[in-house]
Amino acid sequence: MQDRIxxxxxxxxxxxxxxxxxxxxxxxxxxxxxxxxxxxxxxxxDGFAQLLSAIVSQQVSVASARAIWGxxxxxxxxxxxxxxxxxxEGLRExxxxxxxxxxxxxxxxxxxxxxxxxxxxxxxxxxTLTAVTGIGVWTAEIYAMFSLGRADVFAxxxxxxxxxxxxxxDLPDRPKEKALRGMAEAWSPWRAVAARALWEYYRVAxxxxxxx
Length: 212
Known about the structure:
Blueprint: H1 2-5, H2 12-25, H3 27-36, H4 48-57, H5 62-74, H6 80-93, H7 98-110, H8 114-117, H9 122-130, H10 137-147, H11 159-168, H12 177-184, H13 191-209
């Protein structure tokens, strides 16, 4: 199975191993890591509820997402069966928009075998998840990185990663998704650790330079 899915990040030691490798192959990461310090593990649970939470969080504030999620949990509406029982209108009563209620129902109807995803190759994970209405490539890649711990997945559509790459590599413009995906090929097999480094560097740079 390991040959099919590559390295899996499960501990802080794994993140540190990846960070050390990146520092050896790319001096810019050495400079970034000197400013960020040790990188976070950022592992999350996997499964239906994690993806449902991602749908709830789309395009709303953190506070709003937490409030809606709290209502879903209080109503015990965080399983496929419960979602389908309530239906779209029932979900709207709990605070989901019409569109997100539709996405939640689509996820519930998809019948994803989340246990099987743990052993699936990265591209299969992304393809399986993005086949569901309401789940895009960014959400699928984030799920692979943090819920499944995949060490070599990157999310170049993330605006913070794009801006961090611009700052760290002194680029004239923020790289678009395709360009950043190409840049990240040089960081394989630890692209998920490179993402952690860029996110942390963005946090440091934002604080230092007042980036909006």
